[in-house]
Design goal:
- By secondary structure, the chain is of the alpha+beta class.
- The radius of gyration is 21 Å and the shape is elongated.
- The longest helix is centred in the N-terminal third of the chain and has 18 residues.
- A hairpin with a 2-residue loop joins strand 3 and strand 4.
- It has three helices and six strands.
- Keywords: Signal.
């Protein structure tokens, strides 16, 4: 093989690798804590950035995961505070005061996700 063939193989491989980054979707999850305030509702505190990405409105269903199980709660009300949003969710059957949860914020492609975190 001569120099031009090696260069062609290198450039082709690099281009193929870079192109794959636009095909591979990455799911971005956020971890948070759900507060069981009473038997009638739970609270979730969100940053403005997370709230905007979720795009939740009153009466929407909020899907989250806890202890490896998928759960759903209905958004009863949303209160905007100075630096956060408070979501009041439908009644919780969980008896724990604080429940660790995770939820899907958004999906992005590999390169967009990489450069977003730089």
């Amino acid at each position: 093989m001569n120099y031009s063939n090696n260069l062609f193989i290198f450039c082709s491989s690099t281009l193929a690798f870079a192109s794959l980054g636009f095909v591979i979707p990455i799911d971005n999850y956020e971890n948070n804590q759900l507060l069981n305030v009473s038997n009638s509702h739970s609270q979730l505190f969100l940053s403005p950035k997370s709230f905007k990405k979720l795009g939740l409105k009153e009466s929407n269903w909020f899907k989250y995961y806890t202890e490896g199980k998928e759960k759903h709660s209905k958004v009863i009300s949303i209160i905007a505070e100075a630096n956060r949003y408070v979501l009041y969710l439908s009644e919780s059957k969980d008896t724990k005061l604080i429940t660790n949860i995770s939820y899907l914020l958004d999906s992005s492609y590999f390169w967009a996700n990489l450069f977003d975190h730089l």
